Amino acid sequence: MFGQQHVKKQLTAYAHGELSAAQSARVAAHLGACERCRSAFAEIAHGIRLLESLTPRVAPANLWDDIEAALAQEASPQAKQTERPARRAARENNVRRGGRRGGWSLGNLRPGRVIGWRPALAASLVLLFVLGAGGASWFHLRSTRASWEVARLQGAPSIDADRMGSTGRLAIGEWLETDANSRAQIKVADIGQVEVDPGTRIRLVETRLTEHRLELARGRMHATIFAPPRLFFVDTPSAVAADLGCAYTLEVDDAGHSVLHVTAGWVAFETKDRESVVPAGAACLTRPGVGPGTPFFEDASELFLDSLAKFDFAGGGVDALGAVIDEARPRDTLTLWHLLARVEGDERLRVYERLAALAPPPAGVTRDGIMRLDPAMLREWKAQMEATWLT
Ligand SMILES: [Zn+2]
Predict the structure, then answer these.
(1) Which residues have CB atoms below 5 A from the ion given as ligand 1?
(2) What's the 334 CA to ligand 1 centre distance in angstroms?
(3) Domains of the chain: which residue ranges?
(4) What is the CATH number of domain 146-293?
(5) CB contact at 8 A, 176 and 186
(6) Among the four residues 43, 144, 185, 239, which has the most C-beta atoms within 10 Å?
């Protein structure tokens, strides 16, 4: 379905949004399925984030002016000695505060005021070289995405309690609300869209190059995202849905219980200490106080699904786990793989043995390694099983 071709050569263009929607979708699907290309992409994304943090508010042309002037100054040996102590202290203080919120800009990089900029500047030069002209579009986007376009699909949705017209804009911090008879569509920067069903409360939390984030307090939304993994997030009351290049439906009820159904690609449903990775065709529940449950394919047997819900959220313990293990089909190794890290001792061994019977581990992945949750072995085994999950 995804083809066997790796996509490393397309990743930079992909990160810059320079591919067609169809090409982006292909790359996103491949990234979901291929660990190697995903890690290559992670490096590119890291470079972009670094670049973004170095150059928060200034156009690239100014950056080059500053770099040239700073380099010229660097060539002159008197430059360093002319920095007065007070200025130097102010500059160091500024750098300590760091980042966007501290409000530093490239003004701080002007010659004579900064001498500690060299490693950072070298990094930015390398990044500009690597990213080429595409870097410019990333700078530009930053300042033009403080709000998202919203279209009314039906009824009378409101933005921050004001009834909206046929279109509107949702700014950071604002709530979009639909009553029982209204629906709306949100354009997620230029990376996709979210359809908002009736009876939903949803807020724009953040939108910048490396992070677009909504909060779903109640109701249901359908997301379709063509973007690099981990760029689009939705907070729910008990877990965060992190897009890995995908389409999905997310629903939150009045008790704060959520369910995630993935229809294309991958989504990670996560809290600080627990992550469920959910491929197309699978779902995952989450509960306040518990976090994300174990992901499962929705076409599993009824006994499997009931037992898993009991195990995850109703103290079902060993009995429920036993039924999950007995009922598992080859595809349900998705669930068993996640369970390895969620049980211990004899129970982990039972999960391991069933998993090994359904999907024999590749060479180098040992029982002892899995029993002590060796991260590399867990990843390698999962990579092999993904073929079964994605068909
Ligand atoms: Zn690949």
Answers:
(1) 6, 34, 36-37
(2) 20
(3) 8-54, 60-143, 146-293, 301-391
(4) 2.60.120.1440
(5) yes
(6) 239
